[in-house]
Structures are given as structure tokens and as C-alpha cells.
Amino acid sequence: MTVRATSPVPSLALTALVLLAVVGPWLAPYDPLAQPDPIALASQAPSWAHPFGTDPLSRDVLSRMLAGARVSLGIAALAVVVAVALGSLVGSSAALAGRWVDTVLMRVTDAAMALPRLLVLLTAVAAFGRVSPLALALLLGATGWMTTARLVRQETGRLLASENLRGARALGVPSLRLLRGHLLPALAPTIAVAATVAFGAAVPLEAGLSFLGLGVAPPDPSWGNIILEAEGRLVARWWLVLFPTGAIVGAVLLANLVAERLGGSK
Amino acid sequence: MRRILLARLAQGASVVALVLTLGFVLVRLAPGDPFAASVEHESVSPELRARLRALHGFDRPIVEQFGLYLRNLSRGELGWSFSRGQPVAQALRDAVPPTMLLMGTALLLGIVGGVLIGSWQGWRGDTRASRGVGHLTLVMLSVPEFVLALLFVMGPALAWGLFPVTGMRSDFAPDGVRGLFDLLHHLALPASTLAVIIAAVVARHQRRAMLAVVETEFVRAARAKGLGESRVLWRHALRNALTPVLTLTGVLFPALIGGAVLVERVFAWPGMGRAVVDAVSRRDYPLVSAAVLVSALAVVLGTVVADLAVAWADPRQRRTE
Amino acid sequence: MRRLFVSLSILGCLACGTDSGSSPNGGTVVIGTLADADALLVPLVDGVQGRTVSDLLFDRLAEMGPSLNTVGDVDFQPRLARSWRWSSDSLAIVFSLHPDARWHDGRPVVARDVVLGFDVIRDSANASSLSASTAIVTSVSALDSLSVEMRFASRSPEQFFAATQIAPLPEHVYGSIASGALRTSEAARAPVGSGRFKFVRWEPGARIELAAVDGHYRGRPKLDRVLFSVTPELPTGIARLKAAETDVFDPVPPNEVADLAAQPHLNVFNSPSFDYAFVAFNFRDPKAPARPHPLFGERALRRALTLAVDRATIVTAVFDTLALRALGPMVRAQATADSTIVQIPFDRTAAESLLDSLGWTTRAADGTRMRNGRRLAFTVPFPSTSRARERAATLIQEQLRSVGVSMTLTPMDFPTFLKAQTTGNFDAIVAGTRTIPSPSGLRGSWASAAIPGGGVQNAWHYESAVFDSAVHAGLTALDPVQSKAHLRRAYQQIVDDAAAIWLYEVRNVSAVHKRFVLPAWRPDAWWLTLGDWSVDPAQRLPRDAAPAAPAAP
User: Fold this and answer.
1) pLDDT tens digits for B223-249?
2) How far apart are CA C454 and CA C446, in angstroms?
3) Is B285 exposed, middle or buried (CB count within 10 Å of its CB: 0-12, 13-18, 19+)?
4) B241 vs chain C: nearest CA distance in angstroms?
5) CATH number of the CATH domain containing B94
6) CA distance C70 to B138
7) What is the DSSP secondary structure assignment for residue C517, as one 8-state letter?
8) Is the pLDDT of residue B319 over 50?
9) Residue C529 pLDDT more than 70?
């Protein structure tokens, strides 16, 4: 497509972001959990000592942002792995098995899609009681596989109808080998697009759950629960809104750009 | 055409049945019951709550409860909403129309806006202005909807006082034309929040569809024939590029319902989204089940209508089905 | 513009002088709330919103006075009962109803309405939350159309208080409803009451409208309308108050108080409340309730943890000046509260040496203390709906971390939290209680089943024979001085036992639009005075001039 769409900048930036999430905690100027003075140092606007300000418990927001990157992006990334794995499994099995298996799997996919995701998450969070970041990631993954399943089902169907795969099937090549040898490489671009789209959906969802008070448990920081610390006072505590929102928008933007690039090169 | 419709409706029915079962089981997995008082009052004793549970049959096995629920459902009885203190049917009558109004307006604004923006971008091709708009739609797509909603509350509503902060009508709404204006005044911000996001999604698809159409032979031919630019745009390109948007609308529906929950909460819009969050947090099982049913029906119907619209708009699809 | 208008109108008022006697009645108060009422009939209400509305709709026989004294009947004011007479053995009271009292449909309030009020509480199918607090009443019977006799099981200091919990209900409206069908009946959602305000409409999740009753036996309220307007999100609820879309907000969260006090159109009231919060230790093992808790069964450990928590800093950090350190299982507004109880101080060094002496000396890799291979670690749930408790819990967690104690926090949505609490499924829990002016709540929350009515809500299984007997003696003593002395002993015992880390009792802050002229602020139930609120004529808003309420849509 265009020069912009094939530019490596988004992919590089996304990689840099992921790297930051990995090494972030070592870059943090303070302990992200430390409360040096919850009375005198609470809710301080950005200064040289605290470039991103402090939260109402006097914790350093920059350090929490860096630690939160690992939590927020880690949750999103794990959720994507789960969602894409599940979705690819369902989609490709449906296409390969055909007949009633296809019908059942696709109806289940439709049903899972028709169940409002936020509702499922709310009840699931309530059912679990405590939601560790790991559990949250699994939950987000388990409720986000349907788009991938549909995409993969569609693409596999198209590939199976193509000449050389029909030939291979006619020769009796087993489904699994077919999948590994021919389908997976051909499906890779589709799965990559689905993954980046799912990533773009998972990051704001974690923030949305935090907004409802059901995200990552304290004291662990996540970008979503840093916004929550503003307690709706978006103007008076702008630094608690601007920086994490900027990080969320940035991460999703990069994911969308990468998805666009992958999709466009198809 | 009728065969497609029947097949899709049968599929839809199985999906709704599946969703109903899943929803019923899911809400009952969460601990608690509808009788947790809103405050930790010293007077609400465990015995009292146990009595209430037994009174409403929440102490029976889940299979039995489900059977009972289905039997009541077949008689058209949806049960009692504990969180709202009214019959579920009445709760739906109260809460569904506001949500339909909000989503309908947002969809209309979003799709029209998105199609116009996307078509313009596709028509203009890869120009600097088109790219700029493309960046903008991508940014709008990346902002979490509740942040956008909060920004709308803080700016236009609070700081500038141009719009009411929350709700669907003033507490003492006038009748007639002024009442309608009051409603639209309340609707503007929440509908815009959702519309902006929908428009961004639609625009991105529409741009791509438009780019594809613009490169086809017959548009080139029409242009070569020297037809006026605007006529080529409207008569040939736009109509042919609409099909993907119709499909997209069906796909957007579930995501939209999720987004509406947060937006309804921020703007205190008295719709289903808000009712559902309250219902989950109060373990109002009958209302949650009903809400799941309604949203599943809406999603299924949305998809069927979108499919039919596509089949109608695109003769090739009619043949392949 | 609005500011300008308000200050001009204040000047205008100064100029016009005070002729409030001739000022016209009227005005509308819009009360912003975060939640809707759960029910509107007094015996069916559980939550505070429902209580507020039902208190306005229904008068009781007599109402507790502003002194909040619940002992005897001296501080009670007549309502539907014009007078009452005790029997010679004090086991019966005959109430004489006010002959001018009318239901909102115009029918007179009669003796059998009081009987119905009692029957509804007693009918277990209604699951009334008042059944426990009125348990001492054995029978209610109509002597004639305007006198009714209430009999009691035994003499007790709060006998009269229990009697006033029974709100008369119109027999001609609710009498014919089958047992168990009341909660879901149409009539319960459009109540016919006896209070100074009557029901107009209820749009669930959105608003409840009440209107003044003309010709009420206690006088027509000065206001025309009361509207409860629900905004579920706190930030938008506050925003509506700032924009003067609502007139009253209660309770205002601590971090909003300074901002609201600075608004030119708002008055902010700060009064004692009946909420106190604490970290309760579970005395039993949640996995095997027959056994003591492996950590908190040990009194010295509970005391060490209390020593390590800087409660003063927590109260200031979370509430600034809007809460006080809790003294124990009580609030200062209770007549029996005692501020001389000796508290466990905050002393980090003492905490560390006590932990060392208990054998928690080795450290795990993350700095957590260990004893015989067991980490000094435990899990603490808190309700994710309470920002204050989340804050306090996060502060405690960090303070305990600095002495080598690992506390894991578990946010739960409210029903899940309540389930964990009531089933005793926790190590320790950040709990809170809304108590009442009477100290009788001690019995259910902290005493054991060894005394009558004890232990019903004692989910933490605190058990102390000394505490039990002191509470029982305190609650049954008819002499207030003796009662207070017994309760003091009970409070000191439970504080010494470190049954919980007593955190805070909140100050209740309410914000009210300045155009209202208010009587004295009632700390336990400000809405009870709404009938005497009026609007300063010079500051009337358009909604104050609105005509009588429209019919329900």
C-alpha cells in the first residue's frame, strides 16, 4: 500500500513498548509501592522529583506507570495469546471437520459473541473473588476468542477450497499434517491481524474493568487503576489521567497501526 | 430469500437458547444473593437473608431453578427485579427504549458520519489530508470509551455548561416540543461519545472499500466517459462500497452493547447497560437473565437484518447461499 | 453568571429584611443519591435510601428526639400517637392515636392500622429487617378505634424504642394482600402513607417524587416537592450538585468536601455519623472453623499487628479531618460511648520486638517474617465499592510490610464480600458497620451466642466471657449510669483483646444548596426535618416556582 503503511516504525515502537514493560521496573526511580508520606506528599502535581506527580497515597506515578506497563501490557499480551490460540483452534477445527462439528462450533461462537462481554467479565470477577493479574488475563482471553475463530474459520475454508489443498486432501494427507504443513503458514497473516486487533481491545478493557473497581487488586499498579486514583477529578488531578490514558491510547494506536500494516500487506 | 431468512432465524434461535443457558448458569456462579443490604446494617441478620433465599427458591439446585425459570418464561413471566423493586417486564419496558434511543442515534450518526468520512478519504486517495483524517480516526479508535465519556462530561457539560451533566430528561421535564428538545439536549453527549467511536470504525472500513471500488473498471470507465465527478461518486462508487458497512453493522452490535454499558454509567443514562451493571452487583438474577436474553435477541436480529440487507444489496451473495 | 446571580440575590435578601413569617410556602428540593430505594414501606426497607424515603412517607407512633437517647420514653416526641400510658407492671403501653391523623388517601389513621404494622413485621414471609429489633413486643391489639395496646415480653431499657420501630400501615390498603405477596405488590410500590409528604411517582433507577400533604395533622410542609434523583456514578453525582441540578448530597466523600465547601451556592454540614470501620481478625481457622485461627488465635500477635499500624496517619490520609480514630466497637454519637478507653498505641519498635519475642524472627526472601517455616502472611478482603476502605487497607498493607508482615488484599464486589464475611471465610477483613444510637448492636456483632441475642453477626468469632457478661449487664440495666459503667468494662476488654484494629468513625458530611433555610441539623437522620425546610424567597430557582407535581407518566 502506501509508504506509511509499510513503515517499520509502528512495529519497532510496539516492540520498544514491550521491552519497556520488561525492563520498566528497573528503570523506575522509586519503589512503586512505597508510600513516603501519605499526608504531605499525597496527590502532588508533576515536579522534578516526581516527573509524573504522585497519587493520593504519595506513591510515585512514573514508577507506577513503569511497573503498570508490565501488568497492563502483560495482561493484554497473555489475553491475546489465549484468545488467539482458542480462536484458531475453534476456527480451524470447524473448517477442517466440517458438517455438524462446524455447525456446532460456529453456533457456540455466535452465542459467545452474543453474550455481552462486560457482563460476563463482571460476573466472572465476582465469582472468583480475588482476580490476580494472571486470572484477569485468562478471563480476557477466554472472552475474546470469537473474532479470531470466525476469521480463521473463513480463511481456512477459503484455503481448503484452493486447488493444491484440495489435491492434498484427495491424496489422504491427515488433517493435522495438513494443518501444520500447509494451513498454519498460510494462516499466519490472518492470525497476526487477529492478535493485534485483540490486543487493541484488551488494553482498554482492563482499564474499563478498573474503572468499575474490578480490575487489578491493590497495591499492584496497572494503567487502569492509576486513572481510578483520580477518583473522577480529571482536571484537578490531571496527571493521574493524562499519563496513563496517553499510555493506553499509545499502545492501542500502535497495535492498530501494526494490524493495519499486516492486513494491508495481504 | 425466504430460505436464507428461515435458516438464519433457526440459527438465531439456537444461539439465543445457548446464551440463555450460559447466562443463567453464569450469574449464579457468583457468590451472594439479591438480599445483601446496600449498607452493612446491624439489623440485617443472616437468618433473615436465609429466609428470603428460601422464599424465592434460591436455595434449590440450579437445574431445578432453571426448569422453573423456563416454565415461567414459556408463560411470559420474567420474574421480579430485586434491584429495581418492580417486575422484570416493567423494568425492560422502562430501560430498553432509552438504550434503543441512545444506540439508534449513535449508530445512525456514526454510520452516516463514518461512511461520509471514509468515502471522502477513499475518493481522495493517498493525499496528505486523507492521511491526516486517517490518523485521527485511528486515535479515536484507540481511546477507551469511558475516558472519552468522562472528557465530554468535564468539558462541554461541566466546564462550559452547554449540556446537562447526566440523565435522559430533566427532573421536571416540560411536555411537547420543549420536552423533545430537553431529551435531545440530554442525548447529545452520550450519543456523540458512541457515535465518534462508531464513525472511526466505519470510516476505516469504508475507506478501504472505496479505494477498491475506485480502482475498478467501471468507475474508471465512468470517469473516462467524462461523467461529472460527483455523479460518478454518488451513482457508482458509493453504492457499491456500502455492502461491507452493512456487514460491519451486524458485527459491531455486540461490541456496541458493551461500550454502551460504560457510557450509560458515566452519563447516568437510564438504559439497559446501567440496569445490568446494577443487577450484577446486586445479584438480581431475574433481571440479569432477562437482560442477557434481550441482548442476545438484539445481536441475533442485528446480524440477520444485516445479512438480509447484504443479500439484498449484493446479487452475487444471493446466488452463492 | 450563576455566581453573580447568587451574590446579587443575597444582597437583595439583605435589603428586603427578614419577613419570613409572611414569605409564601413552596419550593422544590432535589436530593442527589447514588442508589435507588430498595423498598418504600417501612417494614420492608433494608437500605439507607429506602429508609430516607419511607421515613418521609410514614409517621411512627413517636419519634426519637434530637438527643438520640433510646432509653425510656422521656426523649421521644409524639407523632401518630398523641399520648401514651404505661401499665403498672410496665409490660404494656396503651397509645392514643391523634384524631386528626389521616392517610394520604384521606381515611383516618386507626388502631387496626397499628396492628397491621406489627403483623407485617411478624409475618416471616415478609422477611422484615425490623423483626429482630421489635422481638420484645409480644402482641398489639386495638382497644377501640383510636387506642391500641402493645404488650412486651419483659422490662428493658429500650422497650419504648422497640415500640416506635413499628410503623402503622393503612389496613384498608395493605390488609387484603396475601402473606408473602406484599413485597412484590403494586400497592407497595405506590405507598399510601401518613407522613408530611405523599408519594407521587417512582421511576426505578432514576427518581422518586414526593409532594407536600395539605392539611397534615402536624402542619403542611413549607416545601411543595421532594425529589430523589439517582446518579449512580460518584463523579457525575458531585458534578450535578456543583451545577445546582441537585440541592442535597449526603454523604459527601471526604476528598470532595473542600471543593464543595468552596462553591458559592452550597452549605456544607459536618456531623457525627454511625459508621465505624475496623480490620477484624478471624478467631477461627476459615478452613476448619472448629479450630482457632493459626495466626490470630494468639492475642499477643493481634496486639503486635495493632501496634504496627499508624491509625492516626491513616485517618488523616484517607479523610483529612473528616473522620476520627475509632475507639472500639462504638461511635462517639452514641450516648454510651466512652472516650476514656485505654487504646493500644502506635509503636513500630514495640511491634517489632513483640514479633521477635513471639518467634517471628527469620525472614523470607521478600522480607516477610517466618516462624517454624510458616510465613507471617494472610489475606484480607475488602469491598471494591468502598474507596475509603481500599485506601485504608492499602496504607495498612504498606505499614505492615515495613515490619515484615505480608498482607494480601482482595477486592470483592459487595455481595461476594458480604458472603465471605457472613460465612467467616477470611483471615482478617476490612469491615464496617452502620450502628444505631442504641448500643444494642454490640450484642449481635461482638458478643457470643452465650448471651440472649448474641453472636448473630459475630462473623469473626470473637469470644470473651468478660465481654459477654459486661455487654449483657450494660444492655439490661435500667439505670443509665450503671449501664454506662458495664459497657465501659466491655469496651476496655475488647480493645485490650485486640479483637480488631479499630480504624475510624467517619464524620458525615452533607452539602445543601444555600437557598434553603434549615432547622438544626439532625446527625442520625437529617431528612426527618425536611418538613420544616423552606426556600429563601429571594433565591428561588425556576423549579421552586413549579406548580403542583404532574401525574405519573
Assistant:
1) 677 666 666 666 666 666 677 777 777
2) 8
3) buried
4) 41
5) 1.10.3720.10
6) 64
7) E
8) no
9) yes
**Grid coordinates representing B271?**
438504559
The region that residue A99 occupies, defined by phi over 0 for left and psi between -120 and 50 for alpha, beta otherwise, is: left
Decide if B51 is inside a domain. no
- Is residue B128, in this structure, part of any structural domain at all? yes
Residue pair C94/C84 in contact (Cβ under 8 Å)? The answer is yes
Sign of CA dihedral A222, A227, A230, A232: negative
Read off the pLDDT of residues C69-118 as tens digits, 9 standing for 90 and up: 788 888 899 999 999 999 999 899 999 999 999 999 999 999 999 999 99
Determine the Cα–Cα distance for residues C170 and C193; give it in Å rounded to an integer: 7
CA distance linking residue A46 with residue A24, whole number of Å: 19
Helix (H) / strand (E) element for B256: namely: helix B243-266
- Collapsing DSSP states into helix, strand and coil, what is residue C325? strand
Strands C516-517 and C248-249, sheet pairing: unpaired
Work out how many domains chain B is built from and give that number. Answer: 1
- Report helix, strand or coil for B171: coil
A87 touches chain B (CB under 8 A): no
Residue pair C499/C512 in contact by the 8 Å Cβ criterion? no
Q: To the nearest whole angstrom, how far is the Cα of C125 from the nearest Cα of chain A? A: 29
Decide if C411 and A213 are in contact by the 8 Å CB cutoff.
yes
Mean of pLDDT over chain A: 82
Query: What CATH fold (topology level) applies to the domain A52-265?
Result: MetI-like fold (1.10.3720)
Within 8 A of A56 by CB-CB distance, chain C residues are 255, 317, 391
For residue B274, give its domain range: 87-320
CA distances to A194, B205, B218, B309 from B233, rounded to whole Å, are 32, 17, 12, 21
Size of chain A, expressed as the number of residues it contains: 266
* Mutation site, C233, C250, C275, interface B, largest B CB count within 10 A: C233
What's the longest Cα–Cα distance across chain A? 77
Does residue B79 lie within any of the structural domains? Answer: no
Neighbours of chain B (3+ CB pairs under 8 A): A, C
